[in-house]
Amino acid sequence: MTNALEQRIEPELEQFIQNGTYKRLNYLASPQGPRVRMEDRGEVIILSSNNYLGLSNHPAVVAAGKDALDQFGAGTASVRFICGTFTIHRALEAACARLVRTPASLSFVSAWNANEAVPATLLTQDDVIISDQLNHASIIDAVRLAKAITKCQSAVYQHSDLSDLQAKLEAARDRRVKMVVTDGVFSMEGAIAKLPDLIEVCRKHQAVLVVDDSHGTGVLGKHGRGTAEHFGVLGEVDMITSTLGKALGGAAGGFVAASAAVCDYLTQRARPQLFSNALPPTVAASALASIEYLEQHPELVTALRENARYFRDQLLGLGFRPLPGETPIIPVILGETAAAIRMSDLLLKEGVFVTGFGYPVVPQGQARVRCQISAAHTRADLDQALAAFRKVGKQLALI
Ligand SMILES: Cc1ncc(COP(=O)(O)O)c(C=O)c1O
User: Fold this and answer.
1) Which residue of 40, 207, 347, 351 has the smallest Cβ count within 10 Å?
2) Residue 242 Cβ < 6 Å to ligand 1
């Protein structure tokens, strides 16, 4: 006997398979790294992980997690304000703020949670939030949530279009707080937000600028401080949200980095803080160790940049046309979702794990395989992956 829900979703699942858009999970039996052991497939090169600095299995990062397990036990057993804050949370938050150069920071169990907390907690019915069209799903949902909870107004500006943003700000001039939100690095494109222009426009309109730098932290700027460091505007962004689940150890967690007042207000009022357990201490300790390692080894960021440049240049040399850019996110557009999934399947047969993305993750007709490069990839890893791209590209008549 199936219920009404299952009667609806089972044919949909079948349809995903028919359309070639069904996502099959690949199980890994080894830690994340440039090469992993995939169940039933053996060793594959990973080109689709956010482990940008290769820290997720770094000995110092793993040891810090183990030590924290011994020192603090499994977890917080409560939400922050009741009895769920450990000294390791305070140390982590100081390190996050120090890294991105803001006065304070507050950790969350994910960047998704951090993004959802910001507008829904800080805005009111007198305010507006204006969001870039290509912002991450967590920001899109954060705006929806903020509208439902606070009754604030919202608007979306064309991707990176400063004149459209100005027009939207102009139209919202009667709003008390105007919040503008953008990804620092757009995760599906690898494009970098025009931060200096955004800062200027926001200042002109007295708007608060929030940058989700989940793909910029640890990646951009000489020391990996993110998009603001890349543009030489450290300390000029009002609020930065970011993840601890990518370059900074890859485990999980996120943070809001901002003024002390904003972080304090979020501690007092953000629902994910008030009604959900804090980041487990093991994870907090590993993230803290990642930040400390990055602070001592900025050459990791240089290695990442050089690897990304090499891979992009070689792909171009093979005849592929990746989206232009200077980040380690290198997407190759293929059109239909099924084409992206097929390319990804063929690459996997060649021992290279690159995910294909289609609608609704990216706009219809712009499905892609998205390569992500790590500082931990060796030239041999990258060359082997490029040989697979060459073979599959010819097979599919793409090059
Ligand atoms: C731009 C951006 N923001 C937020 C997130 C969510 O990060 P987390 O895994 O920490 O929730 C992601 C993850 O994919 C992301 O790409």
Assistant:
1) 40
2) no
Q: Is 358 in the pocket of ligand 1 (CB under 6 A)?
A: no
Active-site option among 58, 136, 168, 215: 215
Bridge partner residues of 210 (DSSP): 181, 239
Cα separation, 91 vs 72, whole angstroms: 14
Is the CB of 187 within 6 Å of ligand 1? yes
Cβ of 243 closer than 6 Å to ligand 1, yes or no, is: yes
391 noted as active-site residue: no
Q: How far is the CA of 30 from the centre of ligand 1 (A)?
A: 23
Q: Which of 50, 85, 115 is nearest to 258 (CA)?
A: 115
28 touches 38 (CB < 8 A): yes
- Burial of 227 (C-beta count, 10 Å sphere; 0-12/13-18/19+): buried
- Averaged pLDDT for residues 154-167: 98
At residue 97, what is the residue type?
A: A
Amino acid in position 2: T
Over residues 45-57, the pLDDT tens digits come to 999 999 999 999 9
Ligand 1 atom nearest to 135, measured from its CA: 1
**Contact of 68 with 284, CB cutoff 8 Å:** yes
d(CA 182, CA 159): 9
Residue 215 annotated to the active site: yes
pLDDT for position 20? 75
- Does the beta carbon of 132 sit less than 6 angstroms from any atom of ligand 1? no
Taking only the tens place, the pLDDT of each residue in 316-360 is 999 999 999 999 999 999 998 888 989 999 999 999 999 999 888
Q: Is 183 in the pocket of ligand 1 (CB under 6 A)?
A: yes
d(CA 68, CA 258): 27
58 in catalytic set: no
Q: Is the distance from CB of 314 to CB of 179 less than 8 angstroms?
A: no
- 351-377 pLDDT per residue, tens: 999 999 988 888 889 999 999 999 999
Distance 214 CA to ligand 1 centre (A): 6
**Nearest ligand 1 atom to alpha carbon 243:** 10
What pLDDT, on a 0 to 100 scale, did the predictor assign at position 341?
A: 87
Residues 281-295, mean pLDDT to the nearest whole number: 98
Q: Using CA of residue 63, residue 64, residue 66, residue 71, what is the dihedral sign? A: positive
- For 15, counting Cβ atoms within 10 Å of its Cβ (0-12 exposed, 13-18 middle, 19+ buried), the class is exposed
